[in-house]
Design a protein that fits this description.
Blueprint (H helix, E strand, L loop, with lengths): L9 E9 L13 E10 L2 E10 L9 H6 L10 E7 L5 H15 L14 H10 L3
Antiparallel strand pairs: 1-4, 2-3, 2-4
Length: 132
């Protein structure tokens, strides 16, 4: 029997890697979620951005490429974390995970630099189920 990951969604992950390791420590075409942080103390990291990658056809545009595409945010982020998903996780499931994370941070006093602030589907679900 082949080795199975202990988690259903996440295959591998790295946490609090420095920005200079973004290219070397992440394989190309890695699909999943990532977070950008700004280090604010010895062991304090503030989340400044949450993103997804590898949503294109054939898994193009992986996390490594997305990390490279954030040069305008270089002064805003010093570290990153990445969460690679299993191959059977769909594009829609990755986007749903991003929507949940963005919803958690939506009214945090430390705003994210994301342009996307949430998910229409998630918002409609909340309105539809109004916790009876």
């Amino acid at each position: 029997m082949p080795n199975q990951s202990a988690l259903r969604l996440v295959k591998r992950w790295k946490r609090y890697e420095t920005r200079d390791k973004a290219t070397a420590s992440v394989l190309s075409k890695t699909r999943g979620l990532y977070a950008l942080y700004k280090r604010e103390g010895k062991k304090q990291y503030r989340v400044v951005y949450i993103g997804v990658a590898g949503l294109g056809k054939g898994g193009t545009g992986g996390i490594r490429g997305r990390l490279r595409s954030h040069p305008s945010k270089k002064k805003e982020w010093t570290h990153f974390s990445m969460f690679e998903v299993h191959d059977n996780i769909t594009r829609e499931e990755i986007m749903e995970l991003e929507a949940v994370l963005l919803a958690i941070f939506r009214h945090d006093p430390r705003p994210l630099t994301n342009k996307q602030k949430g998910s229409r589907k998630l918002s409609l679900l909340r309105r539809k189920l109004l916790w009876k």
